[in-house]
Amino acid sequence: MSKILKTDAEWRRELDPERYRVLREKGTEPPFSGEYDHTFEPGTYRCAGCGAELFSSDAKYDSGCGWPAFSAPASGEALEEEVDRSYGMVRTEVMCAACGGHLGHVFPDGPAPTGLRYCINSLALELEEE
Ligand code: FE
Q1: Which residues of 84-123 are buried (b: 16+ CB within 10 A; e: fewer)?
Q2: Taking the CA atoms of the chain, what radius of gyration do you get in angstroms?
């Protein structure tokens, strides 16, 4: 359950339009366009909506898919998942557990040991460099 509850008007006011579209309207940034697609600086990736810690740079890898990819979340409580049947596909949507913001999707084609690829919009993230 989301711990941060804000009205749509509040999110609209706080987020720039691109971030609002991804986080609150489940938008997707164009592939290979995102700020963090090819960023590999050490640090912590936080939710661009609420600041919650979502991913560590340690789990980031170059999947070649066009979006930042991580093999694991920062913790077991950081994310929430939901089945997404939009666009004629069955995918697993990933959301920030703290604010419910849409982040991206998780796919079962990642590297060992998790075998997972968290495919996340750069616009949903804010890197806090070490
Ligand atoms: Fe959040």
Answers
A1: eeeeeeebebbbbbbbbbbbbbbbeebeeeeebbbbbbbb
A2: 14
> What does the block give as tokens for 44?
């912590």
Other CB atoms within 10 Å distance of the CB of residue 15? 18
Q: Does the active-site annotation cover 96?
A: no
Whether the per-residue pLDDT at 86 is higher than 90: the answer is yes
Identified catalytic residue from 47, 50, 99, 119: 119
What does pTM read for this prediction? 0.96
| CA atoms within 13 Å, Cβ hemisphere of 129 | 4
Q: What is the pLDDT of residues 45-77, one digit of tens each?
A: 999 999 999 999 999 999 999 999 999 999 999
Distance from residue 108's CA to the centre of ligand 1 (Å): 23
The CA 51 to ligand 1 mean position distance, Å, reads 6
Query: Measured between alpha carbons, how far is 44 from 46 in angstroms, rounded to an integer?
Result: 6
Strand, coil or helix: 51 = coil
